[in-house]
Amino acid sequence: xxxxxxxxxxxxxxxxxxxxxxxxxxxxxxxxxxxxxxxxxxxxxxxxxxxxxxxxxxxxxxxxxxxxxxxxxxxxxxxxxxxxxxxxxxxxxxxxxxxxxxxxxxxxxxxxxxxxxxxxxxxxxxxxxxxxxxxxxxxxxxxxxxxxxxxxxxxxxxxxxxxxxxxxxxxxxxxxxxxxxxxxxxxxxxxxxxxxxxxxxxxxxxxxxxxxxxxxxxxxxxxxxxxxxxxxxxxxxxxxxxxx
Amino acid sequence: xxxxxxxxxxxxxxxxxxxxxxxxxxxxxxxxxxxxxxxxxxxxxxxxxxxxxxxxxxxxxxxxxxxxxxxxxxxxxxxxxxxxxxxxxxxxxxxxxxxxxx
Lengths: 244, 102
Description:
The structure holds two protein chains of two kinds. Helix content of chain A is about 45%, strand content about 20%. By secondary structure, chain A is an alpha/beta fold. Chain A folds into two domains: about 1-125, Glutaredoxin, CATH 3.40.30; about 145-240, Glutaredoxin. In chain A, the strands form two sheets. A five-stranded mixed sheet of chain A has the order 1-3-2-4-5. The model of chain A is unreliable at about 110-135 (pLDDT under 50). By secondary structure, chain B is α+β, with helices and mostly antiparallel strands. Chain B has a single domain, classed as 2-Layer Sandwich (GMP Synthetase, Chain A, domain 3). Chain B is globular and about 35 Å long. At the A-B interface, strand 9 and helix 9 of A face helix 3 and strand 3 of B.
């Protein structure tokens, strides 16, 4: 079945919970006739394909998500697995879409373990947080609650970018450059706008032992800022680090 | 006298002084890129935008055996007071040992 994305957190949660699965994204616009046709095709393919997640995303409504996948026209279909973009199919072309599903999804299904949780469970699952006040300190000197929150945030996605602003509107040149580099490398990532939350902004400096932004995490491990990531891309190290 | 001089010293000079005194260095090149960033949203409300963003190239034998992240952390740690006092960004475009340069 295909799932319609209705809020950003839902999308990020599906990506987080579906790290082992293949996910097919359908970026569409409700006013576009080719999208209406392809939505029906997409729904049919979703019914016929097991162990893959099919997501419909209204491109203009979720411009940040669309921007992070470099959506310039609709319909656009993006096939992802972990943090890697496997294929991009632009336009109303059912044959091309079917070919991509056959090429990437079927072979990968045999390699990955199918999860018991259905898409609905992933969408509706709520992370429970401890509401009791906790003033104890973590070893790094941060408040335990904040430390736990940062740990959760840095693990919220296979690849997690903490930047000033958002991918569609970076608020500094370094963040803009890093967003561009990740896009060039076809890296799918989660992001957090540190300008929107000062406790995260200040806390992450201590948590990462790194005083500047942007900061990139892969599989919960701090990788570095713009300079280090640039160098890693040049040396081919970043692609090696990315989850399959 | 020295103390007064230190206080009138600009941030660029202080960074250079701190790094060259704390580390054995073969080369330190420091560029002031603040003018490129003064108009950004994140700089809104910052009183002095003349010495907020720098770019560094540094060669030191003390980086030997250290990862990239560790090298950068070493430099950032030495400049903690500057970051606390208004330094927004220090791009370390190159942090190498003399062997890596040759």
